[in-house]
């Protein structure tokens, strides 16, 4: 991950929350709070993070917000339209992989996320944030 320019966190919604594995990843990233590069910037500065959420209940915006705040705390940058989600009907058993054709909105949001993340990562690689 230290060499990557873009981090993609994909998580299901569990009881309105990101998965425990996602939370574990964020907790491990907490160690980066005390790390800096040679210019004094956070070690994750200049890296882009995006979030994808799936689930059978509402809460995708809440999950994205939780994940984005944690990633921002350690220095990641979030692009415009940096999240995508698909949420099925609450309390049902239909999963994303079994849902058949996806709504154009989900596909369009995911394509925009990918384009914006790549664009921002390129910009930050060419023009890093100023030294702290």
In summary, what is this structure?
This protein is an alpha/beta fold and 132 residues long. It has 3 helices and 4 strands, in the order ββαβαβα.
Helix content: 25-40%
Portion in beta strands: 15-25%
Order of H and E elements: EEHEHEH
Main beta sheet, described? 4 strands, mixed
Radius of gyration: 16 Å
Widest sheet: strand ordering: 2-1-3-4
Number of strands: 4
User: What distance lies between the first and last C-alpha atoms, to the nearest angstrom?
Assistant: 22 Å
Shape: globular
Task: Enumerate the spans where pLDDT stays under 50 for 5 or more consecutive residues.
Answer: none
Give the overall pLDDT as a whole number.
Answer: 90
Number of helices: 3
The chain-level structural class is alpha/beta
Salient structural properties:
132 residues; 4-stranded mixed β-sheet; 3 helices; 4 strands
Notes on the structure:
The protein is of the alpha/beta class and 132 residues long. It contains three helices and four strands. The mean pLDDT is 90.
Helix-strand blueprint:
Elements lengths: L5 E9 L2 E2 L1 H10 L18 E8 L4 H14 L9 E5 L16 H23 L6
Parallel strand pairs: 1-3, 3-4
Antiparallel strand pairs: 1-2
């Amino acid at each position: 991950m230290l060499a990557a320019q873009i981090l993609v966190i994909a998580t299901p919604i569990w009881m309105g929350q990101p998965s425990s594995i996602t939370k574990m990843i964020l907790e491990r990233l907490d160690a980066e709070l005390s790390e800096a590069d040679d210019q004094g910037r956070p070690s994750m500065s200049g890296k882009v993070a995006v979030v994808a959420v799936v689930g059978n209940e509402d809460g995708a915006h809440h999950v994205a917000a939780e994940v984005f705040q944690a990633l921002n705390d350690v220095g990641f940058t979030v692009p415009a339209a940096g999240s995508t989600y698909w949420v099925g009907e609450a309390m049902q058993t239909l999963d994303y992989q079994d849902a058949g054709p996806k709504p154009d909105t989900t596909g369009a949001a995911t394509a925009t996320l990918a384009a914006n993340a790549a664009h921002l990562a390129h910009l930050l690689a060419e023009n890093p944030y100023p030294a702290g």
